[in-house]
Amino acid sequence: MLCLGVFNRGAANLHSIAVLIKLDSPGPVFYRQTRVGLHSNSFKVWKFRSMVVNAAELQKRLEAMNETKDGILFKIKDDPRVTRVGKFIRRYSLDELPQIFNVLLGEMSLVGPRPLPLRDVEKFSKRHFIRQEVLPGITGLWQVSGRSDIDDFEHVLNLDVHYIENWSLWLDLKIILQTFQVVLRKTGAY
User: Fold this and answer.
1) How far apart are CA 114 and CA 141, in angstroms?
2) Is residue 177 domain-resident?
3) Which of 14, 46, 64, 122 has the most CB atoms in a 10 Å sphere around its CB?
4) Is residue 77 helix, strand or coil?
5) Which pLDDT value is given to residue 119?
6) Average pLDDT over the chain, rounded to whole?
7) Burial (Cβ within 10 Å: 0-12, 13-18, ≥19) of residue 156
8) How far is residue 159's CA from residue 84's CA, in Å, rounded to a whole number?
């Protein structure tokens, strides 16, 4: 009975987020992007849409503002493509909640290296592909170690390698608990 109550509450919260997205800006509630996962297989990741509909086209004009040191990841602190509701759901990582569908489909795990877009994986060196040896996760060491504040992909890779080489159920539980703390404190969120 408790599980049913938790499920109903969770479904109501997801519905509320969907309504807010629709009221805030035109376009679909969900955003699906091709990401690279286990054994370099591509899949579509589910997210709540947090940006304007033409964000991918606008990114080409914003490439010069990329704040990552090595150019593998694309990040802008005050990204003009993010909607008002998008800022809120990103701050609390609520945009990631639909990825539970990817977990249920076996494409992702709760914990693991974050799946990256194809455009980022195309910039990988041979050493980076170790990330593709495990299922990607909704959260991982990268998220609990600074999230968007980490702007060096080599640092991200080192965290992912540490996770892969030291994996245990205890480590996954620790990361899940730390994820709640990081999200509530809004650490590294933008």
Assistant:
1) 9
2) yes
3) 46
4) coil
5) 81
6) 86
7) buried
8) 31
- Rounded CA-CA distance 39/157 in Å is 16
Q: Is the Cβ–Cβ distance between 35 and 136 less than 8 Å?
A: yes
- The verdict on residue 190 lying in a domain is no
> At 106, is the secondary structure helix, strand, or coil?
coil
- How many domains are there within the chain? 1
Q: Tokens standing for 77?
A: 């602190």
In degrees, rounded to 5, the angle at the alpha carbon of residue 165 between the alpha carbons of residues 179 and 115 is 50
Distances (CA, A) of 122 to 10, 36, 37, 112, 131: 36, 10, 13, 20, 13
Range(s) of the domain holding residue 62: 2-185
Environment class of 39 (CB within 10 Å of its CB; exposed 0-12, middle 13-18, buried 19+): exposed
188 and 77 Cβ atoms separated by less than 8 Å: no
Pairing of strands 30-36, 42-48: antiparallel
Tokens matching residue 169: 């159920």
* Phi and psi torsions of 82, nearest 5°: -75, 135
* pLDDT (tens digit per residue) in 20-67: 999 999 999 999 999 999 999 999 999 999 999 988 888 877 776 665
- The CB density around residue 1, as the number of other CB atoms within 10 Å, is 5
Global confidence as pTM = 0.83
CB 67 within 8 A of CB 79: no
From the list 44, 38, 37, the residue with the least C-alpha distance to 98 is: 44
